[in-house]
Specification:
Elements: H1 5-13, E1 22-25, H2 31-36, E2 43-47, E3 58-59, E4 70-73, H3 76-86, E5 90-92, E6 101-102, E7 106-110, E8 114-125, E9 130-136, H4 143-149, E10 154-158, H5 167-177, H6 181-200, E11 203-214, E12 219-221, E13 225-228, H7 250-257, E14 261-264, E15 269-273, H8 276-288, E16 295-298, H9 305-316, E17 323-330, H10 335-349, E18 355-361, H11 364-372, E19 378-380, H12 384-396
Parallel strand pairs: 15-17, 17-18, 18-19
Antiparallel strand pairs: 1-7, 2-4, 2-7, 3-5, 5-6, 8-9, 8-11, 9-10, 11-12, 11-13, 14-16
Helix pairs in contact: 9-10, 10-11
GO molecular function: ATP binding; magnesium ion binding; malate-CoA ligase activity; succinate-CoA ligase (ADP-forming) activity
InterPro entries: ATP-grasp, ATP-grasp_succ-CoA_synth-type, ATP_grasp_subdomain_1, Succ-CoA_synthase_bsu_CS, SUCC_ACL_C, Succ_CoA_ligase-like_bsu, Succinyl-CoA_synth-like
Organism: Pseudaminobacter soli
């Protein structure tokens, strides 16, 4: 689950981290009152969407010459004008795609005198099986370009879970970020507090871009992006109220109700698979044969007929889907359960696109028999390669 910047900062403030004062705005008429709560003389008006690149983004409705989704204002009147332009309009960034995202929330924040912009994130480094800091002196809006062109400027520091952030790691991070004086002294509490927030709240990503050194030499968290591990949501019911479903795909919301691992993509072939690894392989082989997957969907190892039916409905609800590939290897999951779910879903919602089904494993013959006797126009496949070829051919023809 992702949250907005202002929500992330409120959470981090609870851990004692240095963030600027700010006020969220959901209605244009609240802009003046929000701005007057802050001292000025510089305000920052920030679009709140679940996508990066806001500063370099452009609003569809305002033309190519309009300012981006993060704007500086030097008066309350200028704050009000920016809020009027931004709220309710569609911001397009590199991460939103051409469709963009409608800006339904803004964050008005007190300005900062910036001396240096740094990059910091915390994530799970699967190569070492530990939480790690990723830092760079090249903070700001072009960190992706830095990672691509000069990866040597990015330093990764893994943390021993038994020891936490010790003086040694703080020293390494300070050296990597070239922190001295007050900034280095601030880091002694900042790095452990960030790590504590990450671990205690079961985050999957905590990104501070930029972490700034101000002209007075102190550190400040100028931006914050936080994602939580959905698998740990049962431990954090207090975080549910931070969820903004207007930022999520309708199909993904529906999938979450049925405990399905679903991610909407931009392709035309819907996929229903059991197991994340097999799902990734299925997506890869679809691309290999010249088509694009419309989704990642893992029904899991213990799905029942109702769950499979729900998954099939979600796939067919996507108007971009021109064909469906069901690829099941039955271990815990039984092939006849998958077949029953597919038949039930098709009878309920209809089938207007080609459907290729590859079944293998537990009760595979029962599953194939159910599909044969269903009267559905199902294209059977013997293995994954055969299935991919058939669905791509059926869609193209």
């Amino acid at each position: 689950m992702n949250i907005h910047e202002y929500q992330a900062k409120q959470l981090l403030k609870g851990y004692g981290l240095p963030v600027a004062a700010g006020v969220p705005v959901l209605k244009a008429e609240d802009a003046e009152a929000a701005a007057r709560q802050l001292p000025g003389p510089l305000w920052v008006v920030k679009s709140q969407i679940h996508a990066g690149g806001r500063g370099k983004g452009r609003f569809k409705e305002l033309g190519a010459d309009a300012k981006g989704g993060v704007r500086l204002a030097k008066s309350v009147d200028e704050v009000i004008a920016n809020v009027g332009e931004m709220l309710g309009n569609t911001l397009v960034t590199k991460q939103t795609g051409p469709a963009g995202k409608q800006v339904n929330r803004l964050y008005i924040e007190d300005g900062a005198d910036i001396a240096r912009e740094l990059y910091l994130s915390i994530l799970v480094d699967r190569s070492v099986g530990r939480v790690a800091f990723v830092v760079s002196t090249e903070g700001g809006m072009d960190i992706e370009q830095v990672a691509h062109d000069t990866p040597e400027k990015i330093v990764t520091v893994a943390i021993d879970p038994d020891k936490g952030v010790t003086g040694r790691e703080i020293g390494v991070l300070n050296s990597a970020l070239k922190l001295e004086g007050d900034a280095a002294r601030d880091s002694v509490s900042l790095f452990p507090a960030l790590y504590k927030a990450f671990v205690e709240k079961d985050m999957s990503l905590l990104e501070v871009n930029p972490l700034i050194v101000m002209k007075d030499g102190r550190l400040r968290v100028l931006d914050a992006k936080v994602s939580f591990d959905n698998n740990a949501s049962f431990r954090h019911p207090e975080l549910e109220e931070l969820r903004d479903i207007t930022e999520e795909d309708d199909k993904e919301i529906e999938a979450s109700k049925h405990d399905l691992a679903y991610v909407a993509l931009d392709g035309n072939i819907g996929c229903m698979v059991n197991g994340a690894g097999l799902a990734m392989a299925t997506m890869d082989i679809i691309k290999l044969y010249g088509a694009e997957p419309a989704n990642f969907l893992d029904v899991g190892g213990g799905a029942n007929k109702e769950k499979v039916t729900a998954a099939f409905k979600i796939i067919t609800a996507d108007p971009a889907v021109e064909g469906i590939l069901v690829n099941i290897f039955g271990g815990i999951m039984k092939c006849d359960v998958i077949a029953e779910g597919v038949v039930a879903a098709v009878k309920e919602v209809g089938l207007k696109v080609p459907l290729v089904v590859r079944l293998e494993g537990t009760n595979v013959e029962f599953g194939k028999k159910i599909l044969r006797e269903s009267g559905l126009n199902v294209i059977p496949a013997d293995d994954l390669d055969d299935a991919a070829k058939k669905i791509v051919s059926a869609v193209k023809n």
